[in-house]
Amino acid sequence: MVIDFSSYYDLPRSLDNFFEEFWKPSLLSQRRVSYPPVNISEDDDNLIVMSEIPGMDSGDIELTLNEKSLIIKGTKKSEVGNYYRQERPTGNFQRIVNLNIPVRSEAVQASMKDGVLTVILPKSKESRHVTIAIDAQ
Question: Which fold has domain 36-127?
Fold first, then answer.
């Protein structure tokens, strides 16, 4: 009796190919990884978090700040109707933005205009950049 294992010879490579195809960047970019999307920037004095949340009122969004993160939370209500395709997300959402520097929580400002939430987080004095002069000897 002869057992032919040749069909299993390429099994590890076939599994590798499967996982490579599954984790391709193009496929990842088509999936919604985080909602709402955010842009995080900084200047000398502030961290600036901008988030696109179209179709929501500012009263429907809850912002929470602790010493290490900013939490954006809310519920986007679904519109009533019969859909052929629905790509705009609805339902509960929560986005946690990790802060790598301390901020002055008493001076944080938030505003919303045209579906864009802007949160300005002033840096504390300890986290601001300081230029140090070097003495030549």
Answer: Immunoglobulin-like (2.60.40)
Q: In the structure encoding, which two tokens stand for residue 59, read together? A: 């009263």
Which of these, 48, 63, 70, lies nearest to 123 by C-alpha position? 48
pLDDT digits (tens, 9 = 90+) for 21-56: 666 655 444 445 578 999 999 998 999 999 999 888
Between CA 104 and CA 125 the distance in angstroms is 9
User: How far is it, in rounded angstroms, from Cα 121 to Cα 109?
Assistant: 7
The structure tokens listed for 38 are 């955010």
Q: Name residue 58's amino acid.
A: S
Q: Domain ranges for the chain, please list them.
A: 36-127
Rounded to whole angstroms, how far apart are CA atoms 124 and 45? 8
Burial class of 30 by CB neighbour count within 10 A (0 to 12, 13 to 18, 19+): exposed
Spatial CA neighbour of 57 closest among 40, 71, 36, 75: 75
pLDDT-based confidence at residue 2 (cuts at 50, 70, 90): low
